[in-house]
């Protein structure tokens, strides 16, 4: 008799668990089916006018058209993206707050800052990349620097308070890492001048107050076309169609300087998987839109997408494994 009662209890508990699992699974599926029922916010860690901001807004426009719901970009610049990243990590995981992650937020800041208050892998769920672009090393066109060899020779001849300066989009940005890495490669003293956003650093080079900057192609291109900036080398693996006469860093003897800058959407950890999958499908569809492709490519950006959230997660792991030792070797430590 006791055995029968025990078996009945086990069966009842098992049935209850199965029932709960089905309810949760059904609820998640139904929720994803009606999602989104209100506007979605994308937190951008960089200022208005930067590459991250411009390309994210373009994506948001096309996502909104597909989802038939507003997608709003909120800029929260500061501390090289730390402020925005922490806010995004702490947001409610319901699919209504997303984050425009980038190289800096996902594996540069966690290395160079002593404390970041977030874990890029544990606190976020990857969705998909949506854009990439190379950095271009540019100088003011009025300078007597015609090529990278000229710049290296000049940099090596200047030390102390006469050292050449490089502007950056802030500590922890790819422009910061690129400048620090180049300084180490050529064995010269360079002065890092951080700004809130690469566009501000680019404008300072145009004004002649800073000597050089590693700027995203879609930000530097208008100034190159107007003759105000001179490109010396590009960080892509191959020459870019918009700058066919500008050599890659590999061509001029610095293959280590090859770097691809990217942006991708992630969500706070715990966001329902069905919503993550739905957003991935939306991004994949959005970046195929001819209007988005044209706007990205004419500015120097490249549309990107990952076939699944898992594919983006694998990309993040590979990028982190590749760049972590490089960044650590630079010895950058910030509070």
Shape: globular
What do we call the CATH homologous superfamily of the largest domain? Answer: Bordetella uptake gene, domain 1
CATH class of the largest domain: Alpha Beta
Strand content: 15-25%
Helix fraction by DSSP (H/I, runs of at least 4): 40-55%
Strand element count = 10
N/C terminus separation: 68 Å
Average pLDDT confidence is 91
Low-confidence stretches: 1-7, 18-30
Q: What is the CATH topology of the largest domain?
A: D-Maltodextrin-Binding Protein, domain 2
Helix segment tally = 11
Mind telling me which CATH architecture of the largest domain this is? Answer: 3-Layer(aba) Sandwich
Secondary structure: elements and pairs:
Layout: H1 2-34, E1 40-44, H2 51-67, E2 71-75, H3 82-89, E3 97-102, H4 103-112, E4 124-140, H5 148-157, E5 164-168, H6 174-186, E6 190-194, H7 198-207, E7 212-216, H8 217-225, E8 229-234, E9 260-268, H9 273-286, H10 290-299, E10 302-303, H11 309-329
Parallel strand pairs: 1-2, 1-3, 5-6, 5-7
Antiparallel strand pairs: 3-9, 4-7, 4-8, 4-9, 4-10
